Predict the 3D structure of the following.
Amino acid sequence: MSEEGYPGVGRVLVIIPTYNEADNVRLIVDRVRRSVPEVDVLIADDNSPDGTGRIADEMAAADSHVHVMHRAGKEGLGKAYVAGFGWARDHRYDVVVQMDADGSHAPEELPRLLDPLRAGADAVIGSRYVRGGKIMVDWPLHRLLLSRGGNFYIRVVLGMGVKDATGGYRAYRLSVLDKAELDSIQSQGYSYQVELTWRIHRSGCTIVEVPITFAEREHGASKMSGAIVKEAMWRVTVWGVQAKRSALRKALRPSDRWP
Ligand SMILES: Nc1nc2c(ncn2[C@@H]2O[C@H](COP(=O)(O)OP(=O)(O)O)[C@@H](O)[C@H]2O)c(=O)[nH]1
Ligand SMILES: [Mg+2]
């Protein structure tokens, strides 16, 4: 009997959120389809003014493995992903992958993210900060320090042991996302990556990190901003304090100590 989807893993949907990625979207989808022909692609476009959505429609018309979700306007990466996950559930996928449109996440490394799922992992993070992980970009020192320092802060405050909690190249089993209660995700910008990791960690799922090579974006501009960084930092601090407080409350509850 021939199995549907990626062998040993099931039906896989690669979700690519786009905002003004007209120069990148065709290339990235082609690379995904060439690299792992068994997977499907969903482009989640926030009504990009540069016509990314139209290009995506053309690709979907030419390839039954390619789908497009048109969203009304720019609402941030987190909302686009949550909508994409809902689409994946409605269409009975087993696994979803997050991938940027800009070429920073190499589709050729997709098997690395999918293979640990076969071995029982619930969530796989493509990591720049484990042995073998690389950053091949000309980031100015402050951006590099921000990424490294941000991840260090997250590790200390949340105590998850994940080395790259802000990275966006990931694979999840759908069953894991069900436990993460996506409807109540608060993050708008990139702290979404951290929030989802935090929820998955708290739900007791197995998170595996695999090394990836993070490349320079091919065309266009990054949507990263100071506001996005600030949002991530204050949210992490709030989650950390909440977790410490509830752990303390649990430890002090007499009924738990003398049942
Ligand atoms: N749908 C949607 N996609 C977004 C939004 N903001 C960023 N993206 C996409 O998310 C991915 C990562 O964004 P990017 O600007 O490359 O961030 P960086 O890699 O951190 O510099 C790219 O594919 C963007 O097009 C948004 O508001 N809506
Ligand atoms: Mg990028």
